[in-house]
Model the fold of this input.
Amino acid sequence: MTQEIYDVVVVGGGPAGSTAAEKLAEKGKKVLLLDRGGRVKPCGGAIPPRLIKDYKIPDSLLVAKATSARMISPKNKKVDIPIENGFVGMVDRGTFDEWLRQRAQAAGAIREVGNFSELKELDGLVEISYRVRGKAQIGEGELKKVYARSVIGADGAKSGVGRAAGVAGCAEANYVFAYHEILRKPEKTSIDYDASRCDVIYQQQVSPDFYGWVFPHGDTLSIGTGSADKGFSLRNAVGHLRAQIGFENAELIRHEGAPLPMKPLKRWDNGKHVVLAGDAAGVVAPSSGEGIYYAMLVGSSQQVR
Ligand SMILES: Cc1cc2nc3c(=O)[nH]c(=O)nc-3n(C[C@H](O)[C@H](O)[C@H](O)COP(=O)(O)OP(=O)(O)OC[C@H]3O[C@@H](n4cnc5c(N)ncnc54)[C@H](O)[C@@H]3O)c2cc1C
Done:
């Protein structure tokens, strides 16, 4: 075999994969960090004080700081809770994730932009195939193969790596579908919006089984909700939330959604050379859907031969 052999190929350059790649490269491992690129992860972007401290996130990445959280009950009772240890940081995932990938690269990881397609176990190694992303659409680029002693699947919810490697329970896991809109903050805002507060709304009209949120992002905001009920209109629910804070006519910059795992998988590995991390392994706080910190914690705990 003339191809290069990596100690580990990390598929997915979100918080889990980038942190795993960074920490393993720091330990002297030969690491390839593969991410398909081209899409900003749909996310409210709220990160807790502990993440900012433990993973040395610079202030320049924070687009807003929320110093309190408002809980709104089904009966519209509002309770404001100050954030312990200062503030919750708000990040823009396009900038934040790229910064994490660059930090992994600075630690020695090799970066590649490509779309994972399959893997095969061969003589104690794993052959990973992916399509390089160029001008062609994803899936139509040149097919490349690399070899690794271990693979970390950090490719998010409904992990393609997990399914290709036959990780038990991966194909059957349950998800909430979360949707949000990024709005430009109007110049004049109502008393129901506070740019230093995260609102969390538990109301039937907003979600029958999850919650809605209004998160400040400086000049913009993320306003969203989620549900496992496929018949529930997330768009209408967000429309309702917009009306509640008087932002019906605010400029819509982007709208997007993604599955959010609600429960860790029983197994995170295939018993051989593949392990999952972050959303791929279903690691989020089930009460809130908060996953960035847990993705980084699992990513930074990876050990490979
Ligand atoms: C609408 C919404 C709002 C949320 N809000 C918050 C919040 O405010 N705070 C919070 O903590 N959590 C939030 N979450 C959860 C959080 O986004 C995730 O838990 C977190 O991003 C998980 O990180 P990860 O690295 O495991 O996966 P991801 O962030 O999903 O990263 C996966 C990476 O894999 C790459 N990838 C995927 N498939 C392939 C492939 N085939 N080949 C190569 N690369 C691939 C993707 O490009 C991506 O970079 C939210 C989620 C949603 C959907």
In short: Residues 5-41+93-172+263-300 form a domain with the FAD/NAD(P)-binding domain fold (CATH 3.50.50.60). Residues 11-17, 34-36, 41-46, 97, 115-116, 154-156, 160, 178, 180, 224, 258, 260, 278-280, 284, 289-293, 295 surround flavin-adenine dinucleotide (CB under 6 Å).
